[in-house]
Amino acid sequence: MNIQSLNFDDIVRIPLKRMQYYREVFAKKQIVLHHTVSNDTVENIVHGWNSNIERVGAPFIIDRQGVLYQTFSSAHWAHHLGTQLPNNRELNQRSIAIELCSWGGLKERRGQFTNLYKTIIPNDEVIDYGIEKRGFRYFHKYTEAQLQTLQILLNYLCNKYNIPKTYNPMIWDYNLQAISGSPGIYSHRSYRMDKSDCHPQLELIKALNSL
Question: Nearest-CA neighbor of 153 among 77, 43, 59?
């Protein structure tokens, strides 16, 4: 993908089934960063979304090689927040979800790091925050290629929908601006205390600061 702009020819399209998202158009005010808690097989992620009855999904997924996948138009929407807030539906309607392929929180035992399914993650892919954050001390790193593509995509979406690019350092925890629908870029954690995506990796923060 061109580092300067979004090249639509480079986007891999794996469409969600028609009934798995809503083809309703709402003004977009927010972008929400997630990670998949899965491996790098995007086809399996989309298959899982196509199998749920709650219409859970995201229009964009970025794999660990930085390849951008699209499942439906960013103008449309699906459920991705899952809050208990009275305005949950509106928050989903007016936000755009971006998923980064990552196992998220990891467990350490005898110098080895494992994901949710006990698969060993290479040490050079692990970030140690030194203290427990969101239930985990160790997390699966987002890759340089992912963050480069994310930065390009964020610039494109913010320009398209007139969403502010200013980095908000409070997005890594429950955030009143996020849940009230204030425009901006947030993480899933901004809306739910029980979520750990996304984690505040320094390179991710730098990417957000450089928009």
Answer: 59
